[in-house]
Amino acid sequence: MKIGVYVCECGINIASMVNMEKVVEFAKDLPNVAIARWYKFMCSDPGQETIQKDVKEMELDRVIVAACSPRMHEPTFRGTVEKVGMNPYCFEMVNIREQNSWVHTSREEATKKAMTLIAGAVSRAALLEPLTRTKVGVTPQAMVIGGGIAGIQAALDIAGNGFKVYLVEKSPTIGGRMAQLDKTFPTLDCSACILTPKMSDVGRNPNIVLLPNTDVIKVEGYVGNFKITIRKNATFVIPDKCNACGDCADICPVIKPNEFDMGMSPRRAIYIPFPQAVPNKYVIDEAACIKCGLCKKVCEPEAIDLDLLPQEEILEIGAVVMASGYDIFDAGAAEFYGYGRYENVIDGLQMERLFSSFGPTLGDVVTIADTTKHPKKIAFIHCVGSRSLQEGFNPYCSRVCCMYLIKQARLYKEKHPEAECILFYMDIRAFGKGFEEFYCATQSQPGVRFIRGRVAEIYENPDKTLTIRAEDTLLDRPLELDFDLVVLGVGLVPKKDLLELSRLFNLSRSPDGFLMEAHPKLRPNDTFTDGVFLAGCVQAPKDIPDTVAQASGAAVKACGILSQSFLEIEPIVSFVDEAKCRGCGFCVEVCPYTAIELKEVNKFGHIVLVASVNEALCKGCGSCNAVCLSGAIEQRHFKDNQILAIISTFTKGGI
Amino acid sequence: MSKEEVPKDFEPNIVAFLCNWCSYAGADLAGTSRIKYPPNVKIIRVMCSSRINPLFVVNALQQGADGVLISGCHIGDCHYIYGNYYTRRRFAVLRELLKYVGIDPKRFRLSWVSASEGSRWAEVITEIVNDIKKLGPFKKFQRVLAK
User: Fold this and answer.
1) Is A100 at the interface with chain B, CB within 8 A?
2) Residue A44 DSSP one-character state
3) Which of A224, A293, B52, B69 could form an SS bridge with A138, CB 3.0 to 4.6 Å?
């Protein structure tokens, strides 16, 4: 047994806390170690070449790299050794950066700990076994979850590469949040004008199966071979028959606030969210419907069936793009702004609907309390619910709010040059392409004022105007100003059902509640569930160009899987030593994937039961290994002896 | 039985078993966030906390560890659907067993740390290290090794 140990300085990231020379000298004396070296960047080409040269020339049997987290570079180094003919599972990684040099303050202690960790890896490495990855086929179909601009872009890109895509959308139409916006910063493109053509592209694309009113309810399988159960919720309208004439909505007696217009316009129980909806089909809101049957009577094409039931279907999917988007922060949580209590306090998305040419006022921005009046003075309050450590608020910056408020002020000034717009901000974050220029141009308009300071309180006056108390922190003086309308620049928050969805796909979430990417810099599209990719605000708040870019990235990643004829899957699965197995079935009971069953075998002329693992179903958790009393079932790469070896090294007086 | 004096410069040696998906990622996050904690804990990575055989804990204590930490995904968040439910049960039983044989249950800790809880990880480590520093070295249970 010849082991090579390679310690990485990682620039100064590790070297500043760990004494390389000491660690390498120590490693050289460990059992089976044939060579130990250190280098500035082990993951760089020269670093990897050093390892490869040693493997070839010294005929190493095992390679250990002590560097960053295996979650970062284990695949890199497995590839390194594999290229020179070593089995990738004979490679072992030691984490001396994330879990050592970055978290400890004493160089001596960190060096000592690095030695212990490396010694543990050396003891385990000798016991590692070469493993062969199994090959599985790939279903060349993708699923995109969420039909906002992220999902639309991802679906179009995947479909454009020739693969079939199922685009799953919870609501009756695709378009998402972007469909609700009026103009987009900083170019003032009309949001609908650039989005609706894409929406109809989706509707027409022969490779895209559009599934509106649909939920994902179960996920099984693994990369390349997911089996995803969807539920098509009953809309009580047969889409193929509905011609969107609208007779049904005219007669429906139930009136509800329209969610699409942020509750500022009415809709019926049978409705279409907005005129350009895709698919352009009416749906019945089951919770609101009183089942009077009037719509059914007037529907000429007989498209309405009030007895329809939800339908479940299992789809075979090779790769998934998560693009389920965001919700806006509930401004009601910031009580001191009076949202929900004062009529003329609205949030940013309501303001977008007021601006929109197909909004509740057809683009005429009016005060809410008196819809005949155009506000003369509007206050825009930045960072509502954002950048705050207050309970229930978000510590993070939502990235888009500064710009959308500046844009709204600009748009209002264009329509009403006499009006006054005052923006209360903490810091202006105009970081994107053309943003700063847009900010400066708005700033220089007469009647637009930027006041640096948070609003403390808002009071409603008898005439429904609002008095704002704030502080101008640049002039260091308190302010009291009256306004006709107050717009709250609410931030973005994870969707309410994101937790549920993340659990279905085993995805981690960041501290902010959005889905966690595999690496914050280098793998922003990937997740730790192979074959599941991220697009748009489901990962973190971002603007439209960033969302579209990420969606195309996710689409490329998905196509990368779909275009393979087979994939290699991790061989870290369980196996049974039939001679030791007593057929008790404990492992069968604990397996979360029903990957183990008892089968009959002939042992010395007796037919007995022994456990048997279906490797395609096993995901390698090792639960069965821990429950087995006779040590018959073991998890490859995490076998008892491999773990016990590290335990005994770590406990040997701590070295 | 008189309580043994804790040596002044006692630095406990603690072995930790972490699941790959939540706690190991959480410990990595503590690193990327540069949150500082004591170096006494040495981490062994497994794919799921349900892989950890209770005997690993006993084994570590027998061989001279002063404490053992097990950490996995929060209940309900297990990467392997419900693996950590088994972990919770197994170690509830083991804890009782350790108490029965006279081992202070503070020497063994089961915690749930998610991939986003870097600061929580640092807290857990700091707590267990402080607890075990108070308890002193663990000598009670060591394996008799054949010469």
Assistant:
1) yes
2) S
3) A224
